Fold this sequence. Notes:
This protein is mostly helical. Helix content is 58%, strand content 0%. The protein is rod-shaped and about 80 Å long. It starts with a helix and ends in a 19-residue tail after the last helix. The model has no long low-confidence stretch (mean pLDDT 88).
Amino acid sequence: MxxxxxxxxxxxxxxxxxxxxxxxxxxxxxxxLINVGLGAFFTFIFLTQIKSEPDKRKKKKKSKSx
Length: 66
């Protein structure tokens, strides 16, 4: 998730900087925005997961050998 945010921010900064050729400015900036959006989406999916209960059928039952 952090890689999406970092590469997105770097892409936006490079896309808006003066060193980028004029014909690539819009595309690099747009790809940076897509990466930031993907980072936000996967962060949302990760934070809203529902923890699954362990399967009780696979658990061994304790035998009463008293």
